[in-house]
């Protein structure tokens, strides 16, 4: 007795890990398109009321249709859904759904970073990690991306948007028990369909046991599309350049110059902008000049090319690229038969095409993740810079590690927002390694991070203990390398204890190009204490130089100067000292006064000179003593006069006491 579920000679057969004749196809529907995941739905019958699909889920299953002359058409995919529907007569009905291995990438999501790789290289790496069988037929080089982030998105969404951005699209080719993802970007990426490079047009559906594939209905369509695109972006390394990327379509119908303008274009070079604009233009123009057909041509698959033949409009007899196909097969009976559709078996297909010489690009439909708000990250150093405390490039950029990065990869170079940023002027505070910084993302783009600040944490505490010092604010730095030192400017705002504290770990250099004015104690009100200024130089020298101009010091009360060792005053010209009352000079040892020319001493009242020991006056010329009254010389011993010549006395000489003979 013939097994009515045997598939050896059936038009449509199903291979599964469950066994050759475990399930037989009752209905099959396939949807496939360029840059879309195919979906194959199978209604199948079985004698088994309770199939264990654990043996088949996630594994390859394949539908084969052999209804027409030429190679068999295979529809291979991964079983992702299985339903038990009930009974049909004495058989049990099941519904299976097959999708590509690429679909499995929609079941996994990630956050990770790529450095200095092209989009195509990243795509290949992801596909390889997930075991997707692929081939590349791309013709254009993708730009190398300094920084590319997959952020909270599935692997499928990530590779899909990269392809859409770079003008790469994909299609699948099916074999017996396998399917291959093909990456393409140009008309030359496509080849004629093996065994069916020519497909005839027929006004009436063919009939007969063995027949040739043919198309019965054919529609050509024109659509109004946007004809002009312009992108713009900004590169901080060339801030004066307007990175404009224009692209214009060749269509010349009315209003075809309507423009789509967008910013940012997400590129760094003007040539890149032009290419990205062209990709968006071509994706838009690919909706024009489409063809739609129905017929019996199961060999047609998206990504394959065929030449239409025998169409009454000769301009249509040319090569077309299949964009989309819907295949439907049903079997009402379960009899074995020869080649061709048997009684109760029916196939119909609907197809969408584009002239093969027209550029196709997939529209940008996969949204890029948006980072909703700021994040924090830890500052890190580049590889090979162990021991560094600060790692920065010539643009003041740093690298960070985001908390979500489990691959231990560093970010790109991140620009750091400063309070001011002029041309060689502004603020400069470079975040240091192990600081926690706040990162914003330009327009929420995870590929465009920007450091906007920093925050403290349990490891990095505030410089002044809180809440005890809650009235203090300021800046305290850290000596690098090695720590153990700091500079600081600190403000104390506690009422009655207001203070500004400035500390230099080593040197303090102040440059004032014009004037400096300081007032101390102007608003002093008791009982806050006496206003004062105190300067203590613990070690080293103190030097004041007035290069040009005068120095004037006014002291309302006392001035005390204590010099521990020597003091030297040098006056280039004159010196004048004015003392309102008395002047007292005490010299502990000897004193020497040298006057280069004349010296005049004027005393308004009496003058008294007391010498504890001997006094010697030496005069190089004449000594004249003039007194308005009496000149009195009193000696405790003798008075001796020695003259090289005579001693002349003009006037009366009075001698008191004994006369000593000469």
UniProtKB/TrEMBL annotation:
**Keywords for the protein's UniProt record, in alphabetical order:** Secreted
Enumerate the subcellular locations listed in this protein's record, separating them with semicolons: Secreted
Residues annotated as coiled-coil are none
| Annotated transmembrane regions | none
Q: Which residues form the Gp5/Type VI secretion system Vgr C-terminal trimerisation domain?
A: 473-595
Q: Which Pfam families match?
A: Gp5_trimer_C, Phage_base_V, Phage_GPD
Annotated Gp5/Type VI secretion system Vgr protein OB-fold domain residues:
391-456
Cellular component per GO, a single term: extracellular region
Tree of life domain:
Bacteria
Question: By its UniProt entry, which Gene3D superfamilies does this protein fall under?
Answer: 2.30.110.50, 4.10.220.110, Baseplate protein-like domains, Gp5 N-terminal domain
Give the family from UniProt.
Answer: Belongs to the VgrG protein family.
In Swiss-Prot or TrEMBL terms, this protein is called: Type VI secretion system tip protein TssI/VgrG
Organism, scientific name: Alsobacter sp. KACC 23698
């Amino acid at each position: 007795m013939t097994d009515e579920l045997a598939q050896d000679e059936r038009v449509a057969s199903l291979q599964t890990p469950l066994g050759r004749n475990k399930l037989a196809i009752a209905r099959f529907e396939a949807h496939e398109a360029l840059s879309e995941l195919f979906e194959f739905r199978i209604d199948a019958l079985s004698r088994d009321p309770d199939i264990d699909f654990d043996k088949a889920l996630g594994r390859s299953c394949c539908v084969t249709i052999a209804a027409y002359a030429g190679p068999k058409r295979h529809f291979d995919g991964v079983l992702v859904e299985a339903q038990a529907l009930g009974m049909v007569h004495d058989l049990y009905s099941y519904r299976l759904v097959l999708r590509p291995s690429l679909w499995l990438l929609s079941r996994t999501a990630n956050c990770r970073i790529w450095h200095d790789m092209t989009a195509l290289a990243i795509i290949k790496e992801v596909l390889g990690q997930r075991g997707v069988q692929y081939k590349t037929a791309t013709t254009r080089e993708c730009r190398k991306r300094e920084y590319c982030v997959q952020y909270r998105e599935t692997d499928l969404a990530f590779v899909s948007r990269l392809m859409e951005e770079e003008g790469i699209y994909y299609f699948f080719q099916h074999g017996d028990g396998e399917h291959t993802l093909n990456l393409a970007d140009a008309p030359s990426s496509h080849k004629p369909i093996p065994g069916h490079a020519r497909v005839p047009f027929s006004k009436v559906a063919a009939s007969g046991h063995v027949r040739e594939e043919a198309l019965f209905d054919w529609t050509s369509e024109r659509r109004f599309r946007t004809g002009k695109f312009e992108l713009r972006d900004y590169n901080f390394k060339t801030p004066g350049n307007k990175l404009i990327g224009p692209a214009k379509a060749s269509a010349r119908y009315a209003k075809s110059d309507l423009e789509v303008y967008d910013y940012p274009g997400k590129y760094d070079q003007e040539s890149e902008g032009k290419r990205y604009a062209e990709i968006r233009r071509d994706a838009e123009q690919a909706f024009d000049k489409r063809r739609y057909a129905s017929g019996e041509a199961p060999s047609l698959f998206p990504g394959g090319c065929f030449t239409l033949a025998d169409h009454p409009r000769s301009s249509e007899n040319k090569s077309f690229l299949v964009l989309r196909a819907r295949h439907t097969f049903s079997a009402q009976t379960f009899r074995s038969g020869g080649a061709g559709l048997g009684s109760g078996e029916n196939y119909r297909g609907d197809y969408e095409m584009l002239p093969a010489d027209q550029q196709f690009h997939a529209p940008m439909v996969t949204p890029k993740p948006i980072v909703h708000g700021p994040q924090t990250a830890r500052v890190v150093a580049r590889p090979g810079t162990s021991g560094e405390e600060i790692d920065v490039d010539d643009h003041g950029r740093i690298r960070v590690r985001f908390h979500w990065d489990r691959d231990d990869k560093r970010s790109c170079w991140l620009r750091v927002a400063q309070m001011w940023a002029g041309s060689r002027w502004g603020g400069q505070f470079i975040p240091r390694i192990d600081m926690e910084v706040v990162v914003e993302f330009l327009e929420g783009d995870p590929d465009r991070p920007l450091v906007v600040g920093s925050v403290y944490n349990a490891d990095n505490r505030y410089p002044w203990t809180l809440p005890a010092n809650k009235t203090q604010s300021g800046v305290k730095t850290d000596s690098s390398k090695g720590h153990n030192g700091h500079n600081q400017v600190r403000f104390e705002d506690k009422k009655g204890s207001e203070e500004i504290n400035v500390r230099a770990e080593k040197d303090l250099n102040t440059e004032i190009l014009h004037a400096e004015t300081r007032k101390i104690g102007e608003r002093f009100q008791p009982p806050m204490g006496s206003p004062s200024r105190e300067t203590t130089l613990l070690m080293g020298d103190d030097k004041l130089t007035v290069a040009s101009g005068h120095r004037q010091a006014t002291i309302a009360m006392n001035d005390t100067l204590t010099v521990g060792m020597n003091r030297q005053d040098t006056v280039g010209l004159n010196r004048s000292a004015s003392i309102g009352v008395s002047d007292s000079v005490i010299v502990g040892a000897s004193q020497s006064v040298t006057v280069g020319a004349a010296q005049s001493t004027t005393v308004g009242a009496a003058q008294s000179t007391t010498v504890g020991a001997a006094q010697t006056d030496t005069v190089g010329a004449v000594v004249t003593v003039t007194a308005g009254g009496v000149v009195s010389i009193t000696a405790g011993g003798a008075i001796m006069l020695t003259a090289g010549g005579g001693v002349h006395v003009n006037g009366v000489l009075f001698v008191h006491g004994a006369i000593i003979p000469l």
